Amino acid sequence: MPLTIVTTSWDDGHHTDLRLADRLAAYALKGTFYVALNHPGNKDIEDDEIRALQRMGMEIGSHTLSHRLLTGRSAEEVRYELRESKARLENIGGVPVVAFSYPEGAFTPAACAALAETGYTLGRTTMAFRTPTKFDPARMPISIDFRRASRVGLARHALRDANIAGLADWVRLARLETDPVKLGKLLFDAALANGGIFHVNARSWEIDGNGLWQDLDALISHVAHRPGVHYATNSEALSLTQLEPQCGHAKAA
Ligand SMILES: [Zn+2]
Question: Three-state SS for 14?
Answer without folding.
Answer: coil
